[in-house]
Task: inverse folding
């Protein structure tokens, strides 16, 4: 399965990639803002996208809307520090499969991926 | 800003360190920053706040604090200047974002702005117009400050 990692923090992008090392996944791109995320999404057609919300250029919820228009089967996992319930509910309503709140541990990330990939 | 609201940020940073590093962070007694004083260490991650409140939340620490935190999260990761500054930004982002749980979705946070002692006179960039509270922090042997200046 192909994965696109989107977060404006380089540390979080690297942590996600490293922590997913045990899964049989191919990281096809890493983006630090919403515009780059959409470019890479269109180029690489990933099966899974990890998506931050608060980002430069285009915010994550708008990126999610675009992804859902292009391919609603894409499994989007929102990974954000925002903790208002309404934001998580809004993301899930828009089509995200899961919402992981920062700070998160390796185990929590793995649990979400196991659920998403059925692995 | 009410004392109860300040407590949200204190709890948020305590939970962060307990969960991510397994070592609790000690918080000192908060105090009101004097107008012309500055509370800035080597690296500062700033989050602008808008919506139902206005102002900023920032975390300021020395490189060794952030470097050790980075190493705890990602052992072996190369500790460049940009990653250390990025750690300050990510920490501030998480603490401010987590406060939304209590303050609600109208508590809007910006993307982090990172300042370093090399960015010139950072104190000019952090002139907050709101009464500003400083919370001293101690993690392992390292000192840092959480600074919260918000107006309703």
Result:
């Amino acid at each position: 399965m192909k994965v696109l990692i989107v977060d404006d923090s380089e540390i979080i992008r690297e942590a996600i990639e490293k922590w997913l090392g045990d899964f049989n996944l191919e990281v096809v791109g890493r983006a630090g803002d919403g515009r780059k995320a959409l470019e890479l999404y269109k180029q690489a057609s990933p099966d899974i996208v990890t998506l931050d919300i608060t980002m430069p250029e285009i915010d994550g919820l708008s990126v999610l809307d675009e992804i859902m228009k292009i391919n609603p089967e894409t499994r989007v996992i929102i990974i954000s520090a925002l903790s208002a319930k309404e934001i998580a509910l809004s993301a899930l309503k828009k089509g995200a499969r899961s919402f992981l709140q920062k700070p998160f541990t390796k185990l929590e990330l793995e649990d979400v991926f196991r659920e998403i990939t059925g692995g | 800003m009410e004392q109860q609201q300040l407590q949200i940020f204190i709890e948020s940073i305590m939970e962060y360190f307990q969960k991510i590093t397994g070592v609790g962070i000690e918080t000192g007694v908060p105090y009101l920053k004097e107008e012309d004083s500055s509370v800035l260490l080597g690296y500062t991650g700033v989050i602008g706040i808008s919506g139902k409140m206005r102002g900023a939340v920032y975390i300021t620490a020395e490189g060794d604090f952030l470097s050790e935190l980075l190493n705890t999260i990602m052992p072996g990761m190369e500790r460049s200047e940009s990653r250390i500054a990025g750690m300050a930004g990510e920490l501030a982002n998480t603490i401010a974002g987590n406060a939304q749980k209590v303050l609600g979705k109208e508590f809007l946070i910006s993307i982090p702005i990172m300042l370093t002692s090399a960015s010139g006179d950072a104190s000019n960039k952090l002139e907050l117009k709101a009464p500003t509270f400083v919370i001293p922090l101690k993690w392992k042997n390292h000192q840092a400050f959480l600074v919260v200046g918000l107006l309703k």
The beta strands of chain A are 2-6, 26-31, 48-51, 75-80, 98-101.
